């Protein structure tokens, strides 16, 4: 089309003029494999033929999508808050009504439809502080340090944004575990911060290794200014639960090197191994004494999306900050206020999670039953996943101690590696694509999370129902064996 | 505290090491005046004495907080989606149940608790496309171009983020109206883009002036690369509704200068003046012919927060994009996927707004009554605000044609201006602070939105109830007269 001076009107936004930081972002959990799985699903619905009748999505920690039922009490409270006329109805228990009334009291005009303060509804922040004190056996929590967020994602991105500055060698460096949850690498690219990889110790159940932290830090110091260390515990994608000793070492290291600590604890309720226990970074810091507790800057993150409730769609979450400079705190509130507030229904959901029915309340029994059922099933599936995967030649899976994922190492034959290289894709991507095409199973290649060079993995969730998960694992085993055979039996490439 | 080598552990995050772009952000709608209003409110509750008994907040477009009741039908649908057991209850009308069933069908595991696709729930996107086609009298809308967002704020920030690139003279420039809604300036600072101000024509009811656009563009071209023009229609903070002719001129200009167009149409349902009508940028573009409609890149934004529903807390919204390059579209989806998805309950609320009860459905009458009551009251208050303000000497207020705000020009005596300068604050900030302290009325100074140098304004919402608004306007009048007298009667400053 002809514009000014008879020129064609060009697109103003193309791949060439797109923000290069946006281009640099990668986010595998919803990457090409997932798009392809969606296409296949639609194809199946329209009668297309595939060697399977159903796509099984084990690519994302999305409990309800995999059939988990909502916790009744939580949904009752949210429904009551959404339509307060129900407060007069006899179909809801009193404890749900009491929670809803309290939340609505905290909302402008007593409506979920008002913007809350940018930091969140006051009484919900107070409930969260009480929850944290109980969780941490009395370590004090101040609700002034609590910020509601739009899922944990929003909190993580906001804190990172505060910490990024400088140019060249003084550019902020962010230490993240490898393998990591790719929100971290995506946010780091978007902000042009420097990603500093520290590798988790696969041979030691994905433990944090303090020597590796030192190595990564020292190497990074040559070309950037390391300012923050991120830890995911329990781990995504790796499913480990860090020991108290590991956490102490990290905190000591952060203290010594003046690093800000971000502890992603969205899986704090997802611990399955009887030998493991969740230790909050905050509690460990407290126990290290006031010299640590009163100085180390810490932000920890929680979410409605995980745990036993699995309420991802509500986009609820909170963060607690410790030892944040007062002026910086005001800046954080200002930054958050630009987007006005986190969804108030998500805040309400968060409130229920931190303030569930007590033993003397009418909803306690049902709540307790539902919660135990979810966590019990997850524990069972965690074990089953590890067991079955470890029966497959060429697959090695660490115990799934917590979170919702297994991240097994897979052996990919050299011929398959070569083939993938010639296709310009990573070998585990090729593996996952073929798995999807041949079995309908949707996993995420390890390369989307990061892994030591020359090693290959995939991440799978343990969220499908026990039956479906068993089918998945068996199909996966058969596929893997076939895959190994196929590439083993191929002749040497012709020269 | 002593760290490594006996050094004290310093804070890693201070005002000196904070991201300078975060520091640069300003957001007056929740700025110091609002903080102060909160302090006074708490003081009043604790029995502190003030020359008033109540703080009246007219600082933010937050309808429910100001007493507006939710639309029953919308809340019924959200409650049904939140707690689907209610689908069996006889207390809800069938049309609400039908809407809820349809939304749940579109959710993974039929639960509001699943992550939706990053672009939003398919059937909701389809409903939005149908709504847009109806609104625009048949102009085609493709649901592939619809993206659900976390409030309009999220969509606006995401599109801006795509468009920011380059360094120095090739850095992206973003044209925004002055006065503006400060989300724009805040996002521009945060992304280190270049803000290009074009001034709305106060003497002409805050109309867009094409000559001013040319002036601003030509001047900016010298030091940056103007890439995008933002328009807010109906206007915040200025309350005007742009004519079709103005919109045509803007679109022609954008076509000629190869600019991306962002049209913020969150107040599309808020038009009060009988002589005004809402024209969507998309429809006007369509009517300019295929040469325009098939080329100009446009993103338009809508929200659950405004209109007649005023559901701010749900953080619902959508954007429609036109003529976006296909690869860029994939990049946009990738960018959105990092934060997983917009709140699904907000998506549900958006669905009800675009798909309200039809005349033959059981909820129609009540819905229609509620909607008309809200919009009728706003129209009345818009007129009353303009009228009363224009009776005050030294205040001049344009007609409040739409949106929810008046942005009157106020005369501030030179002595008051000097006093403010000596205090290091803007004169309208001093004015609003004194207004708050003396009357309990909370407004936002014009300087928070931008204004021509040497002119002063404030923004007030028309959201308080009619009675309260009348009280507010009368108190404001008395304050203003007193303020003028006080500074007029002061002697010349001593030298
Ligand atoms: C480790 C970790 N952090 C944060 C998130 C973000 O979750 P949300 O934003 O839904 O709270 C996830 C989601 O999977 C996660 O696994
Ligand atoms: C012009 C304009 N755009 C966008 C927004 C953002 O609203 P939300 O994010 O609540 O949809 C507002 C809120 O006041 C506004 O006035």
UniProtKB/TrEMBL annotation, chains A, B:
Cofactor(s), names only, from the UniProt record: pyridoxal 5'-phosphate
Record keywords, A-Z: Aminotransferase, Pyridoxal phosphate, Transferase
Pathway annotation: Amino-acid degradation; L-alanine degradation via transaminase pathway; pyruvate from L-alanine: step 1/1
Reactions mediated catalytically: L-alanine + 2-oxoglutarate = pyruvate + L-glutamate
Enzyme Commission number(s) from the entry:
2.6.1.2
**CDD domains tied to this protein:** AAT_like
Name the UniProt record assigns to this protein:
alanine transaminase
Species whose genome carries this gene: Oncorhynchus mykiss (Rainbow trout)
């Amino acid at each position: 089309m002809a514009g000014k001076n008879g020129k064609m009107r060009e697109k103003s936004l193309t791949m060439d003029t797109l923000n290069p930081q946006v281009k640099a972002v990668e986010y595998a959990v919803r990457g090409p494999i997932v798009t392809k799985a969606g296409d296949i699903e639609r194809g199946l619905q329209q009668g297309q033929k595939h060697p399977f009748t159903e796509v099984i999505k084990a690519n994302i920690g999305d409990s309800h999508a995999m059939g988990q039922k909502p916790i009744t009490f939580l949904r009752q409270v949210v429904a009551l808050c959404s339509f307060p006329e129900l407060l007069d109805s006899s179909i809801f228990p009193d404890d749900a009504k009491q929670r809803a009334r309290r939340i609505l009291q905290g909302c402008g005009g007593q409506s979920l439809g008002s913007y809350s303060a940018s930091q969140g509804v006051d009484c919900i922040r107070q409930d969260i502080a009480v929850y944290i004190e109980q969780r941490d056996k009395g370590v004090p929590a101040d609700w002034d340090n609590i910020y509601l967020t739009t899922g944990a994602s929003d909190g993580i991105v906001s804190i990172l944004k505060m910490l990024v500055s400088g140019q060249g060698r003084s550019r902020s460096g962010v230490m993240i575990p490898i393998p990591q949850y790719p929100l971290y690498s995506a946010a780091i690219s978007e902000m042009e911060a420097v990603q500093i990889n520290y590798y988790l110790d696969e041979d030691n159940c994905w433990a944090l290794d303090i020597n590796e932290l030192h190595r990564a830090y020292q190497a990074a110091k040559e070309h950037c200014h390391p300012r923050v260390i991120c830890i995911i515990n329990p781990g995504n994608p790796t499913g480990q639960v860090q020991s108290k000793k590991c956490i102490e070492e990290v905190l000591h290291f952060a203290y010594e090197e003046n690093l800000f600590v971000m502890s992603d604890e969205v899986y704090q309720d997802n611990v399955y191994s009887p030998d493991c226990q969740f230790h909050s970074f905050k509690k460990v810091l407290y126990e290290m004494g006031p010299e640590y507790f009163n100085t180390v800057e810490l932000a920890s993150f929680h979410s409605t999306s995980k745990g036993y409730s699995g309420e991802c769609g509500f986009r609820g979450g909170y963060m607690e900050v410790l030892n944040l400079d007062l002026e910086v705190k005001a800046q954080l509130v200002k930054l958050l206020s630009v987007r006005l507030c986190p969804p108030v229904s998500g805040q309400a959901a968060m409130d229920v999670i931190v303030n569930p029915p007590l033993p003397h309340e009418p909803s306690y029994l049902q709540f307790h039953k539902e919660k135990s059922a979810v966590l019990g099933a997850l524990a069972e599936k965690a074990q089953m996943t590890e067991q079955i995967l470890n029966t497959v030649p060429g697959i090695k899976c660490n115990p799934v101690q917590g979170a919702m994922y297994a991240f097994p190492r897979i052996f990919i034959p050299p011929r398959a590696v070569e083939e993938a290289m010639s296709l310009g894709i990573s070998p585990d991507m090729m593996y996952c694509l073929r798995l999807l095409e041949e079995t309908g199973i949707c996993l995420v290649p390890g390369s989307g999370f990061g892994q030591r060079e020359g090693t290959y993995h995939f991440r799978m969730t343990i969220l499908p129902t026990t039956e479906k998960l068993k089918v998945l694992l068996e199909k996966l085993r058969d596929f893997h064996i076939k895959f190994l055979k196929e590439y083993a039996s191929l002749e040497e490439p012709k020269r």
